[in-house]
Design goal:
- The protein is mostly helical.
- It is built from 16 helices and 13 strands.
- It is 54% helix and 6% strand.
- The chain is globular.
- 29% of the residues are buried.
- The N terminus is likely disordered.
């Protein structure tokens, strides 16, 4: 039997390896950037300095300003506690500390680590008392989730209130790789007080220790020892130190590698670039020149300034400032509006249809939006109810005999069915679409013949639009997600149901079942209008048909 200490030691070694590898990558990346800058500086022509002309540094010679932090790392992982370089913030209130701890504990992405640890722990039989199967996986999962939540609240909420410390991470952002690395790791033992002075990080050291001690209350008695508690304590501090280190360099990675892809919609007001914005101001006594306005539309860099007003103006004269057009909504804001509509969609008012879009002009979602929509579908009460219905069906068919019978066997089948749905949704609709830049939603056709719409709905399970090009391509996310979810199910299904053949068979069966769901999503609005006299698309269906008909008329040969 393998005690829990072994998995923690194994995780410590793996974490150290990952830190060293990532550190080497970032160091190599930073060194290459510095070398390129040095080479560029050495190749610039040298001009003699003259005493009469002041020397103004060119923009290229100025040091690059530190990049701001984003709310999420890679658009998924929470980064709410990170503060950008040189940003001045007031001390955290008790409410803000509580909200930070709550966001880190119950954010949709906070489930990933407990899910992974639960699978690894059960695979290595880290705590034999938890047993195997769906019930065993559930025990591993909730223990890992409670460990994470307890540590978050101790380190970010309870002890920062008692010690009056600031639990946020203040990015250094300047200096060499070694200096910034040392600073990031030192934040595990040094932090800021509410007054802004650096103090010993009691919240991190003592808070993590208390959380590790509390874990003895809900782990099996044979796992309770000072050695195991101390090991978990050190591992928690090490993980937090590694997260500080990654937060320190994340703005550079986002800027250099991803070209601020994950920062366009996450700047706060104090972090916006301070470059001048084009403005147009026209005096009331002047009439705008149409030619000038046309030129402005084609050249947004052009700035028009009004004539200087005289020192004394007639108080009776009325001036009407130019009406500024409302700012155009960003793609993120448009996607947010469409997602809010989709989260209200239910078939017969019960079954969620969050992953269906009725918009003919639907915009692509960010990685965070995809993950949030997938998580919202996974935790819907109807999803849990479907797991219990599937459990009853499989028990009636005498499937999965390794789960046993009675209430215990029914509970194992229900847990396994829900995990199947959860893993498939999160991987196939969240993780893989974010990585592969594919849109996981079902875009309803709504027009054409019945046969054409049937073929379309079935085809969407194996093809999907790309986020950037909007061209249809193989749906690697859906098919791959179903296969990966089938492979993960080997961890909690009886051994008689495991194996490579069973994994691929289950994956393709789930894909085929998704085709049936797509057919129902395609024709449900038609059924609802004819039977219930309700339009679940709220007019969007008619708009899509009109747009299609207009396009068809334009393409029709004269």
């Amino acid at each position: 039997m393998i005690p829990i200490l072994s998995i923690r030691n194994s995780l410590s070694r793996r974490l150290s390896s990952l830190v060293l590898i990532a550190g080497g990558l970032i160091y190599g990346f930073t060194a290459s950037v510095a070398l390129e800058a040095q080479q560029a500086a050495s190749t610039e022509p040298q001009t003699p300095a003259t005493a009469s002309a002041p020397q103004n540094p060119s923009p290229q010679s100025l040091p690059e300003e530190p990049q701001p932090q984003t709310k999420r790392i890679l658009g998924i992982l929470p980064n709410f506690r990170a503060v950008s370089t040189d940003e001045k913030l007031p001390p955290e209130t008790v409410k803000e500390k509580f909200m930070n701890a709550t966001q880190d504990s119950f954010d949709y992405s906070s489930i990933f680590l407990p899910v992974a640890l639960a699978g690894y722990s059960m695979g290595t039989k880290a705590t034999p008392e938890f047993h195997q199967g769906a019930a065993g996986y559930a025990r591993y999962f909730w223990h890992a989730a409670v460990d994470q939540t307890s540590e978050n609240y101790m380190v970010e909420f309870i002890f920062p209130i008692i010690t009056r410390e600031d639990a946020r991470y203040y990015t250094l952002g300047r200096g060499g790789f070694v200096k910034r690395t040392g600073y990031a790791f030192s934040r595990a033992v040094v932090t800021r007080s509410n007054s802004g002075t650096e103090v010993f990080n009691v919240s991190e050291i003592v808070g993590a220790g208390v959380a590790s001690g509390l874990s003895s209350l809900y782990y099996p008695s044979r796992e309770r020892s000072f050695r195991n508690t101390g090991t978990e304590w050190g591992l928690d501090i090490g993980i937090d130190a590694a997260s500080f280190w990654f937060r320190e360099f994340w703005p550079d990675i986002n800027h250099r590698i991803f070209h601020n892809k994950y920062g366009t919609d996450t700047f706060t007001t104090g972090q916006l670039p301070k470059s001048p914005q084009p403005q147009i101001e026209l005096a009331a006594t002047e009439q705008p020149n149409p030619n000038t306005l046309v030129a402005q539309n084609h050249s947004p860099q052009l700035i028009f300034t009004p004539p200087q007003p005289s020192a004394v103006q007639d108080s009776s004269s009325s001036q009407t400032p130019a009406q500024q057009p409302p700012a155009a909504k960003s793609q993120y804001e448009k996607a947010e509006e469409q997602i809010k509509e989709e989260e209200k969609q239910r078939i017969v008012g019960v079954v969620p249809a969050f992953n269906v879009s009725y918009h003919s002009d639907a915009v692509s979602m960010t990685a965070g939006q995809k993950m949030r929509l997938a998580f919202r579908s996974s935790i819907d009460p109807v999803t849990f109810a479907a797991g219990f219905l599937a459990a009853g069906y499989h028990e009636a068919k005498d499937d999965d005999k390794g789960f046993g019978w009675g209430p215990e066997g029914y509970g194992k089948r229900a847990g396994a069915a829900y995990l199947d749905a959860f893993n498939g949704t999160m991987i196939g609709n969240g993780i893989l679409p974010s990585i592969l830049h594919q849109d996981p939603r079902y875009f309803r056709l709504g027009h054409g013949t019945v046969g054409h719409r049937l073929l379309y709905s079935l085809a969407t399970n194996v093809i999907c639009p790309h986020d950037n090009t909007h061209k249809w391509e193989p749906n690697y996310s859906n098919v791959g997600g179903n296969i990966i979810a089938g492979a993960i199910s080997n961890l909690y299904y009886p051994s008689s149901n495991a194996g490579v053949s069973q994994t691929f068979t289950t994956g393709f069966i789930v894909t085929a079942e998704g085709g049936l769901a797509s057919i129902f999503n395609e024709f449900w609005p038609d059924i609802s209008r004819k039977v219930l006299h309700r339009d679940p698309t709220h007019g969007l269906d008619a708009q899509a048909r009109d747009a299609y008909q207009e396009k068809k008329n334009v393409e029709k040969p004269q």
